[in-house]
C-alpha cells in the first residue's frame, strides 16, 4: 500500500490531492495555468460557441449550470465573455452574471469587484450594452456615480448622447436663470461634440437665439454643391443593377434620353441644413428610375475619412472612378448617417459620383414615393472634415480634363 493511501484508492487529505494535481499539470506542461480559471474559460467559450438553430445549446446549458455555481470572482470573466457582437451568447452569459450579482449582493455587496467593473466601464472599446450593464451595477452600489461620470463622456461612442443630453439640460437651466454666458459655453460644448441630428439642431438653435453664429454644415461636413442628372428609366427594381452613361464617363456637356425625355446635368446647391437633396423637386417626381449626383471636393492633404450618407431608395458611390459602396435596399428612406463608408481622400481634387435609385409605387395610392440623398465627409468620430469645392463649369466639351482630376 502506498503511504497516505486507503485501500479504496482515495487520498487522506486535500493537500495530497492538490500536490498530485500539481505534479500532473507540470508533467503536461501546464504548470503556469490555474485549473479552476481554465475551466471557467472553457465554459464561457462553450456558451460563446452556440450556433444557429440552437446548435450546441445542450453543452451550453451544462456550462451555464457550472458557471452559475461560481462566485463573484468570475464576474469579470463573464463581462469579457459578453463583450461580443453576438447577442445570443452574450444573453446566456448575462443571465449567469445577473444571478451571481444578485446572490453576492444579498450576501456581501463588498465582494463585487468594483475596481474591475470601473475599469471595464471606462474602456470605450468594449461593447456599449455590456458597459451599460456594468454601469447599472456600479449605480446600485453608488446611486450618484452615473451623475458624476456621464457628463464628462462627450467623446465616448456609447455615452456621447447621454453626456450631451446632460449638457443641454444644464445649459437650458442656466439660460432660464438669465446666466447667458454660462449657457452659451455649455451650448457650444454640446454643439461641438454632438453627433445626433436632433441634439446638434437644438444646440445650434439655442446658440443662434443667444446671438452666436454656428454652422451645422461645417461642423458635420455636409456636401451641398452638386451636379444632378436624371431620371433614367429602370423598370421595377432593375435600376440598381443597370449601368447608365454617367457610370461610364462623367461628361457634363452630354445629353441622354431619360425616362421622361432628354436629360442633362444641372448645377444644384441644397439649402437644407443637413444637406438633403430632394430629387423629386430638383429633377422630377417619378417611380422606377435612377439619378446621379456628382461633385468635386479638394483637400489640403491625404486624409482617411468616412462618407456618412443616406438615400431613398438606395445608393451607390464612386470615389475617383472606383466604386466604394453599393447597397440595394428598397423603400427605406434617407436617414441621418444611415450608411458609413471608410475612404481615403487624396490631396487635391476628389471626384464623387452618387447613384440614387427610385423603386416601385406604394400599394397605397395616397402614399407618394420620396426620393432624396444626403451625404457628408467626416472623421471616424463623426466630426466634419474641412474641404472646398472645385466643380468645373458646364461648357462645350466639358469632360474633365487632367487639371480637373
In short:
With 405 residues, the protein is α+β, with helices and mostly antiparallel strands. It has 14 helices and 13 strands. Strands 1, 4, 6, 8, 9, 11 and 13 form a seven-stranded antiparallel sheet that branches. The protein has a four-stranded antiparallel sheet with strand order 5-12-7-10. A two-stranded antiparallel ribbon has the order 2-3.
Coarse shape: globular
Mean pLDDT, to the nearest integer, reads 87
- H/E series, N to C? HHHHHHHHHHHHEHEEEEHEEEEEEEE
CATH-defined architecture of the largest domain: Sandwich
Secondary structure category: alpha+beta
Sheet-strand content, in percent, reads: 15-25%
- In whole angstroms, the N-to-C terminal distance is 90 Å
CATH class of the largest domain, named Mainly Beta
Q: How would you describe the overall organization of this protein?
A:
The chain is an alpha+beta fold and 405 residues long. The chain has three domains: 34-143, no CATH class; 160-214; 221-404, Jelly Rolls (Sandwich), CATH 2.60.120. The chain has helices at residues 14-27, 35-48, 57-68, 75-82, 87-107, 114-122, 128-141, 145-149, 160-176, 180-193, 197-209, 216-220, 245-248, 279-282; strands at 225-233, 255-257, 262-264, 266-269, 277-278, 289-299, 303-312, 314-319, 322-327, 339-345, 348-358, 372-378, 388-389. Helix 10 runs antiparallel to helix 11 (197-209).
Amino acid at each position: 500500500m502506498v503511504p497516505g493511501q486507503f485501500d479504496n484508492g482515495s487520498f487522506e487529505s486535500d493537500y495530497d490531492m492538490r500536490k498530485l494535481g500539481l505534479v500532473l499539470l507540470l508533467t503536461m506542461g501546464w504548470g503556469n495555468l490555474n485549473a479552476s480559471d481554465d475551466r471557467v474559460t472553457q465554459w464561457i467559450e462553450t456558451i460563446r460557441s452556440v450556433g444557429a438553430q440552437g446548435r450546441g445549446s445542450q453543452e451550453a446549458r451544462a456550462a451555464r449550470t457550472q458557471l452559475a455555481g461560481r462566485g463573484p470572482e468570475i464576474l469579470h470573466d463573464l463581462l469579457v465573455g459578453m463583450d461580443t457582437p453576438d447577442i445570443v451568447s452574450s444573453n446566456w452569459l448575462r443571465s449567469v452574471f445577473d444571478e451571481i450579482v444578485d446572490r453576492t449582493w444579498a450576501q456581501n455587496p463588498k465582494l463585487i469587484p468594483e475596481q474591475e467593473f470601473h475599469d471595464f466601464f471606462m474602456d470605450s472599446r468594449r461593447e456599449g450594452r455590456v458597459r451599460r450593464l456594468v454601469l447599472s451595477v456600479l449605480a446600485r452600489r453608488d446611486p450618484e456615480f452615473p451623475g458624476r461620470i456621464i457628463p464628462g463622456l462627450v467623446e465616448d461612442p456609447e455615452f456621447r448622447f447621454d453626456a450631451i443630453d446632460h449638457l443641454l439640460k444644464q445649459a437650458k437651466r442656466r439660460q432660464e436663470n438669465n446666466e447667458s454666458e454660462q449657457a452659451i459655453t455649455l451650448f457650444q460644448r454640446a454643439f461641438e461634440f454632438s453627433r445626433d441630428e436632433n441634439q446638434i439642431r437644438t444646440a445650434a438653435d439655442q446658440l443662434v437665439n443667444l446671438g452666436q453664429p454656428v454652422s451645422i454644415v461645417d461642423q458635420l461636413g455636409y456636401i451641398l454643391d452638386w451636379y444632378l442628372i436624371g431620371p433614367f428609366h429602370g423598370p421595377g427594381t432593375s435600376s440598381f443593377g443597370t449601368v447608365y452613361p454617367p457610370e461610364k464617363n462623367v461628361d457634363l456637356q452630354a445629353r441622354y434620353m431619360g425616362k421622361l425625355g432628354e436629360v442633362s446635368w444641372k448645377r444644384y446647391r441644397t439649402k437644407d441644413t443637413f444637406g438633403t437633396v430632394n430629387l423629386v423637386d430638383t429633377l422630377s417626381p417619378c417611380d422606377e428610375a435612377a439619378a446621379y449626383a456628382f461633385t468635386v471636393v479638394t483637400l489640403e492633404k491625404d486624409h482617411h475619412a468616412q462618407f456618412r450618407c443616406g438615400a431613398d431608395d438606395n445608393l451607390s458611390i464612386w470615389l475617383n472612378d472606383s466604386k466604394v459602396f453599393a447597397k440595394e435596399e428598397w423603400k427605406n428612406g434617407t436617414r441621418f448617417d444611415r450608411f458609413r463608408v471608410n475612404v481615403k481622400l487624396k490631396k487635391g481634387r476628389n471626384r464623387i459620383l452618387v447613384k440614387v435609385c427610385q423603386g416601385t409605387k406604394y400599394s397605397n395610392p395616397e402614399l407618394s414615393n420620396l426620393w432624396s440623398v444626403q451625404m457628408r465627409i467626416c472623421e471616424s468620430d463623426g466630426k466634419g472634415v474641412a474641404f472646398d469645392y472645385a466643380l468645373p463649369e458646364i461648357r462645350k466639351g466639358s469632360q474633365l480634363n487632367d487639371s480637373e482630376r
